[in-house]
Amino acid sequence: MRTLKCSTSVIAGRVFTLLLALALAGCAGGIRPMEHGPELPVSSEPDRFLQDQAQAHGAEGLASVRLLNTGQEAFEARAALIETARQRIDAQYYIWNDDATGRYLASRLVAAADRGVVVRLLLDDINVAGKESLFALLDAHHRIDVRIFNPSRARDGFGRWLSFITDFDRINRRMHNKTFVADGLAGIAGGRNIGDGYFDQHPTLNFRDRDVLVLGDLANAMTDNFEAYWRSAWTLPLAALYERPEAHSAEPDLATLAVAGSQHLVVTPPADRDTARRYLVESFNSLVQAPADLVFDPPPEDPAAPADKPQQTAQALYRLMDSARSEILIESAYLVLDDQQMKIMDSFGNSKVDVAALTNSLATNDLVTNHSGYARWRKAMLRQGIDLHELRPDAPACHRWVAANAACRAGEVSLHSKAVVFDRQTLFIGSFNVNLRSIYLNGETVLIIRSPELAGQVADDIRYAMEPENSWQVTLDDQGGLLWHGGAQQFAHEPRVGFWRRAMSRVLSWLPIEKYL
Fold first, then answer.
1. Which residues make Cβ contacts (< 8 Å) with residue 477, sequence separation at least 6?
2. pLDDT (0 to 100) of residue 469
3. Cα separation of 311 and 439, whole Å?
4. Would you say residue 272 has pLDDT above 50?
5. If we measure between CA atoms, which residue out of 288, 351, 311 comes closest to residue 435?
6. Which residue of 91, 285, 399, 517 has the lowest C-beta tally within 10 Å?
């Protein structure tokens, strides 16, 4: 990947980033590193529940892990960990929405802080806009500390948009990592952000996603990941960014948060310690012991420096691809490669390996821009022999993936999960999309789990999603054009979308901006 100069791709990228800024209302402006104050002491309340569970389910040299396949169980697991924590909760997220599930979990963080738990919430700045009041309410608690990664001091106005051009390189370095750790003993890592659509709570559009619940040493590794960003010179306290006194004048109103967060929930999460413990005991009893490692990309020392080398998570993926012998199955919400990545894949000494990928169709992709980057290289991927499948919005698989089946009947499902399975032996899972942004720009966290049992489960689920009723298989016709196959149906253009959405994707696919998608 060439170092970025004043090239056509950079100019196009900057124009695109400005357009994306207007859509997402992200961050802007330039900042300088700041020093942080002293750490808050942890609670001294004795409680050995998680420690006893870690010892009971631990095995020498092995990790204890469990897949969280539905949004409902992923939501319940986070809620249960909040109720069970006695010392510290560390939560690191790209997005924390101010909706029913976001408010409910926020209210339970306040309840945990009230009983002595130290809560640290670390958020990426790109999605903070519009949710400041919720985070300010949390940060007002004397045991809750909210910090923002790679923010700008210009929080609104024209300067907010201007920096997407003038501060282009730094703005593109984002913290996409997603981890949640209780007492350094139990944690969750994966693809889910915090919000209704990730937890099967949205009435119409829910994301198919995956998380992993871990117990023991891997949770400590997640804490290392968290600490690297928490102590980064480019992470600032929320109070340093929003200095309006009225936002911090009162203690959080727990009752208001709780009511606002719970009244629209489809499920009843464990909201007290005993219920949470029973839930976790049942979850921990289904843990799988297997060799596993956590790999994360540390925050950049200088976010404005050229991002022209694959990061640690990408390098780990390359090593696994190189060692595959028969099959690689990719499940990625955003699948964006370029000629250099194609050459890397071609250079592996395993040309007989079958590679199949499941990603979003234009009809299910939540970002047309991201789909355009995939579409730009789709024919090249097919010519290289990759078997491509695109999720259908009406996939019956929604009823298996989303606990709130009414949402499947009334709406659509979108793919947000990120997993790669190698030879049905090894599972690569976390926040890493198989795209250029994850390879070069974003901070990511992945678990590499060497378990035929879990790898086989995910492989079977990916193959199920690739069946004709759940996804369209994309192929090339005799003239090199694209065809979409879904059972007896065949399409010569991207199905289930209107002309203007197809046109927008096509125009954007002409721009060399795939690295920023």
1. 483
2. 96
3. 6
4. yes
5. 311
6. 285
By DSSP bridging, strand 354-360 and strand 327-332 are parallel
| DSSP secondary structure letter of residue 62 | B
Residues 6 or more apart from 259 whose CB is under 8 A from it?
A: none
Amino acid identity of residue 441, one-letter, is L
Q: Is the pLDDT of residue 25 over 80?
A: no
Nearest to 14 by CA among 234, 176, 161, 174: 161
* pLDDT tier for residue 456 given thresholds of 50, 70 and 90: very high
What single-letter amino acid sits at 451?
Answer: S
A 10 A CB-CB count for 155 gives: 17
DSSP 295: E
Angle between helix 100-114 and helix 254-262 axes, rounded to 10 deg: 150
CA distance 513 to 517: 7
Distance CA 313, CA 226 (A): 16
Q: Mean pLDDT throughout 451-461? A: 98
Give the residue from 261, 266, 324, 293 showing the smallest Cα distance to 429.
293
Residues that are catalytic: 176, 178, 183, 416, 418, 423
Q: Give pLDDT tens digits for 71-123.
A: 999 999 999 999 999 999 999 999 999 999 999 999 999 999 999 999 999 99
User: Which of 127, 239, 198, 174 lies closest to 517 in space, CA to CA?
Assistant: 174
